[in-house]
Amino acid sequence: MSLVLELANYVGITAFGISGSMKGIRKGMDLLGVLTLGFSTALGGGIIADVLLGIMPPTNLVYLPNALVALLASLFTFIFYKVFTNVNKPLIYADAIGLGAFASSGASLAYSVDPSPLLVIMIGTITAVGGGVIRDILSNEVPLILTREFYATSVIIGSGIYFVLRYEGMSNYYDIFISFVI
Amino acid sequence: MSLVLELANYVGITAFGISGSMKGIRKGMDLLGVLTLGFSTALGGGIIADVLLGIMPPTNLVYLPNALVALLASLFTFIFYKVFTNVNKPLIYADAIGLGAFASSGASLAYSVDPSPLLVIMIGTITAVGGGVIRDILSNEVPLILTREFYATSVIIGSGIYFVLRYEGMSNYYDIFISFVI
Amino acid sequence: MSLVLELANYVGITAFGISGSMKGIRKGMDLLGVLTLGFSTALGGGIIADVLLGIMPPTNLVYLPNALVALLASLFTFIFYKVFTNVNKPLIYADAIGLGAFASSGASLAYSVDPSPLLVIMIGTITAVGGGVIRDILSNEVPLILTREFYATSVIIGSGIYFVLRYEGMSNYYDIFISFVI
Description:
182 residues, 82% helix
């Protein structure tokens, strides 16, 4: 994994960890509920993608740094909740970066297993939106991706572009950059 | 896969794609939400069954025709929604055919992996009802199979009959026919 | 599997089968809905754990005794519902034993696949609480583990202690005993 992709991965985990634990706090959950929801949101998409690709046990359940970052992000959100509600705008950027980062890493992983365009797009999308879907299902709500169009659209297009670029042999850094812009 | 089974497979995908996207439309989702829900309903049961049987990546995420049929069925439903609401009766038949087709193909796949009666019945049932369960969970409702008895009963019995017939060495066409009748 | 662990396994399946089917009855489901919910609650955690560890098809879908115990527990609950509502206290003990038993067996299984502390704790926890999460999602409610703290805490600590004990080479019986006490 390149340095850029690895950094993006941690940004994504942090962003989704915050988003999951904020939802837990708003639903009136206590510390453990908030941590569980933050953890599931941050790592759930990657776990589902790994299972679908046959990578078992999933990286997120074995590789400690990912779990630690998810846990710390959730813990910090629980402690500094009032700060975060005042910084809504940066959070949306973090969410967008998280989606882009996860779509890239998911698409990249799928490509290494089987370079089928359908698989690359599907796994890229599932990695990116899976955590949010888990968060909303556990919170007993209709998943946001089903009701807010721009959200998933950008991820699907991003994964698709990833495949085309990869297929035409362009560099990895370049398409990650593009995924981010989108 | 025999021609009859393959045809039944596409009928099943179409029927569940329509059922999923109609639910999305009724919930007021926009195009992408409707397509995602139709897609998940049509292909979700098969994906879960493949994962449980250790077939990774799942066929529905690699084999393009299945995905295309699911997408087209959902798109057509979105465009011609008003027509479909007036043809409720044929839809129920399509749903029944879909359940029968998916139960048959799931049971058949499970049998080829491990001819245990429990597995054949369970995978046949999961393949058939899995998509509908995903549809209802994503729509934030109690799954229909838990509240409408005849629905799952027929699928479980169908998968059971499939196993008995297969075990006794009868022809494939015959038991698919029986699954349909039930 | 040791005799103690196997016995605990059946106690766990019975306890969760009862808890799942009681929820189904309270939600006004009919026989098949109740059986399905009891079955999913009793066997779901183990199935998810098996998939995450790469054990496919999952034991609970192949090994008949587990499925039979789950089905019988659910059937008995459906028939003798009024009796069970008057014995709420023993049920809470059964639930605690079930959590301890499933956390132990999940942690033990994970350890045999990969002795990573994170994996052992995560799989132990998922095996124990997975069935209850499935039960609550299918019932269209926020999972209990997210709102009642002591519940998951004890399971996580139990799985953690299991790992430490195992790592230090202590006997299996001893740590199962400890998991139960916690």
